[in-house]
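Dear Dr. L.,

I hope this message finds you well. Following up on our conversation about the binding site, I have prepared a predicted three-dimensional model of the protein together with NDP. For your records, I am including the exact sequence and ligand specification that went into the calculation, followed by the structure tokens. Please feel free to forward this to your student if that is useful.
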Amino acid sequence: MVKNPTIAFLGAGSMAEAMIAGIVATEQTPPNHIIVTNRSNTARLVKLHNKYGIQGIKQEHLSFDKIDVFILAMKPKHAQAVLQSLKHHIRPNQLILSVLAGISTAYIENYLHEGQQVIRVMPNTSAMIQESATAISAGIYTTANNVGYAQTLLQCLGEVYIIDENHMDIFTGIAGSGPAYFYYLMEHIEAVGKEAGLDSEVVRNIGAQTILGAAKMIMQQNDTPAELREKVTSPNGTTAAGLAALKKHGGGRAIAQAVKDAAKRSQEISAQLRKETKTV
Ligand SMILES: NC(=O)C1=CN([C@@H]2O[C@H](COP(=O)(O)OP(=O)(O)OC[C@H]3O[C@@H](n4cnc5c(N)ncnc54)[C@H](OP(=O)(O)O)[C@@H]3O)[C@@H](O)[C@H]2O)C=CC1
Ligand SMILES: O=C(O)[C@@H]1CCC=N1
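The resulting structure of the complex is given below.
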């Protein structure tokens, strides 16, 4: 990878913004080396430019040859059209990072030039505050040097795990979609706290601090989650009552099923796109 590469985000939605915020905050890449473009929403490009100092450029004005790294950040259903058009503008040694759920490196390579360097990435929106759990899997043509570059770039968004691409779907179910499960949990905790008369902002902070503390305990102590749970649970105490309710109402099963169904959806997106490609 060149020194001070220019990075272009194709897609300017929630995920692109979370990554831009993380990269800019850590000064990993200077803002004038970061470009963002989208399909049609120019107001969004202006907003991102004003907020982060990066360049918001309409697609028709992009100088593709000056870009070293493309980050695909549109919805998976738009991937095919974007890749077909991208092929006319790029060279195989320009690095493609794709955050698209369910889209394999092979699918992307198939649409681009022989030898195109592709890395599949699964971040989450906590990239915005450099707390993402991000996975990467390289395609068959990607050099070790570029994997190293991607790892360094993404480390400014949080923790990075290099995984086998076969595990991308389950990683997506756990970490890509994961923040939403905890937000959903928080919505319910907040509602109950409010019902009991607590101020909603206060209960929100209490809930968040409780999740943060539990997460830090898991990361900083040697105990397993089950051991930590047991340490909270006094015989016949309040936690035992709470956990019994979770068990009775299928709390554990529901969480496991959420992860499984998200991973399944990632596989379905992949299968659907392969089917559409065959029928074109
Ligand atoms: N949100 C998340 O938590 C995560 C998302 N992802 C992945 O990130 C990707 C984006 O998700 P998200 O940010 O939530 O989606 P959003 O809907 O927020 O954003 C999609 C963006 O893609 C743009 N777009 C659509 N078509 C094109 C095109 N032809 N060329 C360039 N840009 C285009 C849209 O532009 P316009 O508004 O002009 O149409 C919009 O800026 C998805 O593939 C998703 O799987 C991965 C991990 C986590
Ligand atoms: O919901 C989605 O499909 C994307 C991928 C992971 C998180 N959001």
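In brief: The mean pLDDT is 96.

With kind regards,
A. P.
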